[in-house]
Amino acid sequence: MSKVRRRGFTLIELLVVIAIIAILAGILFPVFAKAREKAYTVDCLSNVKQLGMSFVMYASDWNNKLPTAAIKGSFRRDSDWVKIMSDSDQADISVGRGSLFQYVKSEEAYVCKNAVDAQEKGPSGGTRTSYTMNGNLMNWRDSYTKSLKLSRVKYPANTFLLIEEHDELPASGSGTGYNDGFYYAPDPRADHRPSGWGFACDYPAGKNESERHNGGAIVAYVDGHSKWHTYQDLVPFGPGASESSPNSGKLFPYYHPVRSAIESYP
Asked: In sequence order, what E strands does 19-87 have?
């Protein structure tokens, strides 16, 4: 009885199979990447929505007053939504010790999964936050001694509360561009800062806008709603704009809604 001889793949057949797999991979990988990005965007939107609503709940429990945000250790208070742990490093923060954690109860809600620093910890072990509070919702005129009342925000549906910060993390030390949970847009039309506070202008981590989600970012508004915006939606350009001269025509993110909030200060 003769044995049946098994025939193997020829080199050409193997190459054809490999080519087919490569073509399928080229088609499917971008689809999977887009699906993953969509999932990250949905998750981030949920985070921002949750955090935004926690600001509203905090105000409801504290005589209609919003939480605050510190820009350096000497101004740390119990009402800060995240805690700065070090006077020398503003990026060293703790979300668990912040005033909103009682409403959120999850460190993961403070971090976008699409952020490159999502798994990093600060020098004191604190969780870094991917989001930052509108610094203009703090009472500049009283040098941080009083929180701004929610009822003082003139246009809550048009005033941003939280935005995403850029992933870039600078070295320790004083200066601008920290992922510290505080953002101040220095709009000259609505500048109620005390003198000497220019260093608080935190163009998210070094003047770079966050574009984690398909060229855009998630924004929470004072009235509690949150939505995704494109970079073009958030940063209108004008004559003479440049990265080195942001106030020369380029309106850095969120100038328009910021103004409506500041005009309503007591």
From this structure: 83-84
Listed residue (141, 145, 154, 140) closest to 184, CA to CA: 140
Are the C-beta atoms of 75 and 144 separated by less than 8 Å? yes
Q: Please compute, for residue 200, the number of CA atoms within 13 A of its CA located in the half-sphere on the CB side.
A: 29
Rg over alpha carbons for the chain, rounded to the nearest Å, is 23
pLDDT tens per residue across span 42-85: 888 999 999 999 999 999 999 998 887 765 555 567 778 877 66
Question: Could you tell me the sign of the dihedral formed by the alpha carbons of 145, 151, 154, 158, in that order?
Answer: positive
Q: By percentage, how much of the chain surpasses pLDDT 90?
A: 8
Torsion of CA 239, 245, 251, 257, to 10 degrees: -160
pTM of the full structure:
0.67
Residue 183: its H or E element: strand 182-183
Which residues 6+ apart lie within 8 Å of 151 measured at CB? 64
State both tokens at 222. Answer: 């004072």
Residues whose CB is less than 8 angstroms from the CB of residue 90 and which lie 6 or more positions away in sequence, other chains included: 71, 72, 84, 178, 180
Assigned token pair, 173: 């030390």
